[in-house]
Amino acid sequence: MPPSTDLLQGTLDLLILKTLALEPAHGWGIAQRIQQVSNHILQIGQGSLYPALHRLEYKGWIQAEWGASENNRRARFYSLTRAGKKQLSTELANWDRLTGAIDLVLERV
Amino acid sequence: MISEWLSRLRFLLKGKPGLEVDEELQFHLERQTQANMAAGLSSGEARRQAAIAFGGLERAREQCLEQRPAWFLEPLLRDLRYGVRGLRRNPGFATVAILTLALAIGANTTVFSLLDQALLRALPVSDPSQLVVLSFAGASPGHTRSDGGDRPGHRYYFSYPMYLALRDQSTVCNGLIASASVTVGVIWSNHAETVPAELVTGNYFQTLGVRPRLGRLLVAGDETSEGSNPVAVLSFDYWKTHLSESPVVGKTLLVNGTPFTIVGVASPGFQSMVWGHVPDLYVPLTMQHIVIPEWTLLRDQQFYWLNLVGRLRTNGTPAQAATALNPLFHSLRAAEFTFLPDQSAKARGEFVSDSHLNVDAGAQGFSPLREDVRMPLTIIMGMLVLVVGMAIVNVASLLLVRAAGRGREFALRYALGATNGQVFRQLLAEGMLLGVGGVGIGLILAPQVLRVLIRWTAQRSSHSVFVPTLDWRVLWFTIAATLLASLLFSLAPAVQFWNPRLTEALKRPADARTGGTLRFGRTCARLQIGFSLLLIVAAGLFVRTIQNLRNVNAGFETDHLLAFNLAPGLAGYAPSQIAPVEQRALEAIAILPGVRAVGATNDPDLADNNVIGGVVVAGYTPKPDEEFDVEVPWVSDGYLQALRIPLLAGRYFAAADSATAQKVAIVNESLARHFFGSVPAALGHHISRPNRPVTDAVIVGVVGDARHTTVRDPAIPTSYTLFAQAERPCALTFYVRTWQAPATSAHTIGAAIANIDSKLMVSDLSTMNDEIDGSMLAERTIALLSTIFGILATLLAGIGLYGILAYWTVQRTREIGIRMALGAERRTVIGGIVREAMMLAGSAIAVAVPLAMLASQALRSQLYGVSTSDAGVYGTGIMIIGLLAVLAGYIPARRAAAVDPAHALRTD
Question: A52 pLDDT exceeds 90?
């Protein structure tokens, strides 16, 4: 699997996978969590969140199930698949490599 | 990776209902609203904030659905539905575009299929690339029995002894075969008819690799010795159409009155090693004396009548074969030379030293017909390319004009959130619909057109060399090209609308001019006018050619003249009985009611047929190297009178010039002038064929020159002698001059001949004028097709010109309104637009006329009596185009001028 070169898209995928690695969540929950954890720096546009979720689902990295939400409504809960876990570690490694490389450049120059 | 594909597959099979996405997104909005309310907003404001934060709900939904791996099918269907609706809104445009494309496909595929069959396709035999065609350079004194096809340095006809020697004394070929085309009389279950046949060698089928459909084909054992192989193989088509596919093997049919045993039927599709021969049956060469009763050819070294084809050994090349065969060929020629009368060194040089055997690659087989059809087919194909080019330009300009009027539609769609990709797909779908529609109709059309064309080319006989099967490679190519072209042109507008400045486009009036479109449209219109002028000129030149050919003074009267063939030899008459029965037939016809005169010849007139040879005139010393070949027909004593060839001096033949009387000849004016300087001087001189003293005849008359080969060819010097005084019998063509319409006499003539002997077969009965028309088939076909193409092209050009002018005037409606409000007269307005049309046409004509003059040079060989820069033809063409331009300009101009100025000013 070649590393994703599209930084933005790759980053969103990484954030979603990482968030889902903790526990299954529905779309709104994922957006909220990323927002909270990043101290409101990362605002996930819903317009790109849901297409990304569906894309990851089609790729087989996450799977969806209907369940009851915290307010007792029917919601679609996403969880990580085995392939997704593997993909997460690959993407994390890529991320480390990338930020490490950027750090190096920033320190030297 | 694999899991990804598995997951895709799962979704592809199971799908995911679109409703789920709706519910999911709805949940998100509700949850956000709830959160906002929890943060203290009113319920309405909370909902509003949630919606703003979410952005375009519909777009997010679309994008979610598009993530699906197999997303493209659904939108495609939607695009197609939308495309159909779009085209239905504009049915005129869609119809013209689809029909234009259909025409392009149908016509192109049809004509190219014929071209391919005639010029490109290999013979339907096994491994045709190994075949070679033999020909030779060098003198060929003696007789040649030829279907034509010879060219300088390449004589394609050989003697049987030469064939045998080349076949048996060399091993360089893996089989050497020979054939000659003949016409035979066949009697099968009491039904007599003349059919084309082929004399072939025993190894013919085996060498070509043709398989039997039934029974067996000929083998080497069927070519043993003269007269001992009365067997025949039928062609598949003959067996199917005439013998109703019955089990015929072992049965007997009569060929020229002699029983032949049918041994088998050839496989379907195979006709002959010579493209253009369509024999019904194949007979061993050794049966020549039955099949061609008037000649004895098998042992004659000086009779050239066989086409030779060889099969190379594996890995052999034609050059190797030529090197190997030439020493043998030279020694055979040297041996042959010792028997020739002229033993001079010069004759020896021409016959032996300068002779050479050519071995040429021959996958397509030898074919005199191919050379005849090459030029007409190429011309038709060339004209067709013009028409197809026009068709494509037409569709392109229609699409562009249409797209230009859709600027606002597309701007609106962009504004509603359409992406470039969606607009692109939409246009693609429309283009594809046009293309598929055109291909569909073209596919239905093409086989019909092909059948009609083939029937037309074979109108006078049931045997066409062309088979009515379309060439699939060509069909696929045309379909692909058409689809590609329609897609490309339908995408062109996409470039125009790519990322438009939306607000500007929306504000712009619906008919705002886009300079590029107009320019392109004008170029298209000019191209179309140019193309149609080219085609009109071609049509004009050929129509004039036909007129000229029909009006040629042939030197005899062609009206009220009926022609038919009678060959007693084909009905089994012995040689000594042939001339007497022919004489009886002449007498029987002469006394029929309605018949004014009857004559016969062994050398039919205006049938592209020649009997040519040298003559010796007593007392005339030829100039050095003089070669003066003359036409030497054998005729009946009433022939010249029946044809009404005028007598210039002396007398016509008379009944008194019988077989036993002094032999007499009548020469034509050209011959008299060549040998004797003047017409009267010819009388009383003796004329004979070289080395045949028995042919010596005294000239008793001189007649006017008459055209003989075809109406195109000038008259040939001719020496007529009597068939009754000839050395051997011959088949005759009868000419009957009638009082009433010739066709009405046909029945009584048939009855009169049957009355003499029911076995006698009257064949190819037709009027002289029909024969002449038949001999102009190529010219007439081109004239007909070019006229159709010309009309079509003019229509297309008219539509194109009208389209662009209509577009242009609609754009200027407001300007016209202002001008009329300021006092311009309607006439001035209309005049202005018509002038614009004329200018457009004029500039196109100015370029097209010199081009047409240049292009028509290529047609020169097919034209007759008309210059390639004929003022009448060009004038007519320019006039038609001018009229067209006026009409195409006047209609939209009148509409524009009829608009109320106040209304025009308010548009948009």
Answer: no
Under an 8 A CB cutoff, do A28 and B32 touch? yes
User: Rounded to a whole number, what is the distance in Å from the CA of A90 to chain B's nearest CA?
Assistant: 13
Round to whole Å and give the CA distance between A64 and A24. 9
Residue A32: closest C-alpha in chain B: B32
A53 part of a folded domain? yes
Average pLDDT on A58-78 reads: 85
pLDDT band at B644 (very low <50, low <70, confident <90, very high): very high
Contact assignment for A76 to B24 by CB distance below 8 Å: yes
CB within 8 Å: B31 and A60: no
Report the domain count for chain A.
1
Residue B486 Cα distances to B110, B396, B519, B793, angstroms: 21, 8, 20, 19
The nearest CA of chain A is from the CA of B12 a distance in Å of: 10
A27 vs B: CB within 8 A: yes
B8: which chain A residues are within 8 Å (Cβ-Cβ)?
A: 58-60
Q: In A, residues 35-64, which contact B (CB 8 Å cutoff)?
A: 45-47, 50-51, 53-55, 57-60
A1 band by pLDDT with thresholds 50, 70 and 90: very low
Residues of chain B with C-beta less than 8 angstroms from the C-beta of A73: 27, 30-31
Domain that holds residue A85: 7-108
Going by pLDDT thresholds of 50, 70 and 90, the confidence category of residue B496 is low
Choice among A13-17, B246-250, B453-457 with the minimum mean pLDDT: B453-457
Q: With a threshold of 0.85, tell me whether the complex ipTM lies above it.
A: no
The reply to whether A76 touches chain B by the CB within 8 Å rule is: yes
* Chain B positions in Cβ-Cβ contact with residue A59 (cut-off 8 Å): 4, 7-8
The letter for the amino acid at B185 is: G
Q: Is residue A1 in a domain?
A: no
Does the distance separating the beta carbons of A51 and B7 come in below 8 Å? no
> Whole-model pTM?
0.72
Closest CA to B772 of B442, B452, B460: B460
H/E stretch holding B747: helix B742-756
Closest residue in chain A to residue B54, using alpha carbons only: A46
- Percentage of chain B modeled with pLDDT above 90: 36
CATH number of A30's domain: 1.10.10.10
Q: Looking at chain B, which residue has its C-alpha nearest residue A46? A: B54
Answer yes or no: are the C-beta atoms of B675 and B623 closer than 8 Å.
no
Distance CA B292, CA B256 (A): 9
Give the confidence band of B462 by pLDDT, cuts at 50, 70, 90: low
State whether A74 and B30 contact (CB < 8 Å): no
Strand pairing category for B143-144 and B191-200: unpaired
> What is the rounded average pLDDT of the residues B660-666?
94
B303: nearest Cα among B485, B482, B180: B180
* Structure confidence at residue B513 (pLDDT): 46
Binary contact (B8, A58; C-beta < 8 A): yes
Highest mean pLDDT among B104-113, B134-143, B316-325, B337-346: B316-325
Nearest to A60 among B7, B31, B60 (CB): B7
Which of chain A's residues have a Cβ under 8 Å away from the Cβ of B27? 26-28, 69, 73-76
Domain ranges within chain B, ordered by starting residue:
17-71, 128-363, 373-550+777-906, 568-760
Burial class (CB in 10 A: 0-12, 13-18, 19+), B395: buried
> In angstroms, what separates the C-alpha of A65 from chain B's closest C-alpha?
11
Q: Which residues of B touch A81 (CB under 8 A)?
A: 3
Q: Is B190 left (phi over 0), alpha (psi -120 to 50) or beta?
A: left
Q: What is the pLDDT of residue B142?
A: 77
B578 — alpha (psi -120 to 50), left (phi > 0) or beta? alpha
pLDDT at B14 over 60: no
